[in-house]
Design goal:
With 317 residues, this protein is α/β, with parallel strands linked by helices. The chain contains nine helices and 13 strands. It starts with a strand and ends with a strand. The structure holds acetyl coenzyme *A (ACO).
């Protein structure tokens, strides 16, 4: 038994921060960011929590799916920017939408939504749940060093969601982890225990951009080929690729390596930047809303990022 997508939704906060605005804060330019990354602007949450944004995306996904919150059996949220360690984002969404089901968060950086989707599929396969709300939501703006031009220009805030149910639309999947804190490091609460000496770790997001870039290009190609093979389809059968929106050059490299034309890759990085775990579900929801997804279309989803981690799956729409 597998899952199929019933509906999708997304939400981004209204405050847009353009490259020109950022170039007033750090030594950068619209030209550099557009050429090297492909971002024109990103959204930053001024006063909405990660759970607030997740709730809005969730409500949109429920409307799209045509089901009530009371019909949900499980809520899983991929996030690394939970507002609090407890309660979870998923728990706050459960309360805000009036659901009664269990809810929990999953931490796998930019691959978080994909890991959450796989978790949903596993619960449905086990037979004890039917409808699952899967969300990717992030407010990375609160973890960034806004004086560091190598990271603050890249990320944005937002949330994307999908309601999945029993069905035969999840053809194959893969997840990958390569434990490392050297390439990408995102800090947590430091704490104040008197029983140990705190080591000097970065207080903000740290990223070795070039190593992450190489990891990303290699993983997308490998993961998409693997899931296509597992699903028994050739790459030319794929109608749409919805990949993590981290850098337009990563997407272009992936297109070349996979020999899948760029027209099949959904791209919205220019508007939102890298929204970490929210990136794939926001892109999927925008693609869905555009009306370009047809019943029976084959969609490859793939993500990569901190962990290091990556994941991909093949969906039949
Ligand atoms: N504006 C202007 N110049 C800059 C900026 C900036 N914002 N940032 C860096 N530079 C400079 C550097 O200082 C360097 O200057 P130098 O040559 O004088 O030393 C030069 O530009 C080149 O720097 P690189 O770091 O080599 O730039 P690169 O082309 O690699 O682009 C980037 C950096 C955008 C970070 C890229 O490496 C990238 O996209 N990496 C992948 C990121 C990613 O995929 N992240 C996903 C995971 S995130 C997660 O999981 C939460």
């Amino acid at each position: 038994m597998s899952i199929k997508v019933l509906g999708t939704g997304f939400y981004v906060p209204p405050r847009a921060v353009t490259n020109d605005e950022l170039s007033q804060m750090v030594d950068t330019s619209d030209e550099w960011i557009m050429q090297r990354v492909g971002i024109r602007e990103r959204r930053v949450s001024v006063d909405e929590t990660t759970a607030d944004m997740a709730t809005k995306a969730a409500k949109n996904a429920l409307v799209s799916a045509g089901i009530e919150a009371s019909e949900l059996d499980l809520i899983v949220v991929g996030t690394i920017s939970s507002d609090t360690a407890c309660p979870t984002v998923a728990g706050m969404v459960q309360r805000a939408i009036g659901a009664k089901c269990p809810a929990f968060d999953i931490s796998s950086a930019c691959s978080g939504f994909m890991f959450a989707l796989e978790t949903a599929a596993a619960y449905v396969a086990r037979g004890n749940v039917k409808n699952v709300l899967v969300i990717g939501a992030e407010r990375l703006s609160k973890l960034l060093d806004w004086k560091d031009r190598s990271t603050c220009i890249i990320f944005g805030d937002g949330a994307g969601a999908a309601v999945v149910t029993k069905g035969e639309g999840y053809l194959a999947s893969t997840m990958y982890t390569q434990g490392s804190d050297e390439v990408l490091f995102i800090p947590d609460v430091v704490g104040s225990s008197p029983f140990y000496e705190r080591t000097e770790k970065p207080r903000f997001v740290y990223m070795d951009g070039q190593e992450t870039f190489k990891f990303a290009v290699g993983r997308i190609a490998r993961d998409v080929k693997e899931v296509a093979q597992k699903a028994g389809i050739t790459l030319d059968r794929i109608n749409h690729v919805v990949t993590h929106q981290a850098n337009i050059r990563i997407i272009e490299f992936a297109s070349k390596k996979l020999k899948i034309p760029m027209e099949k890759f959904f791209v919205n990085i220019e508007k939102y930047g890298n929204t970490s775990a929210a990136s794939v579900p926001i892109a999927l929801a925008e693609l869905h809303a555009s009306g370009k997804l047809k019943r029976g279309d084959i969609v490859a989803l793939c993500a990569f990022g901190g962990g290091l981690s990556s994941a991909a799956c093949i969906i039949k729409w």
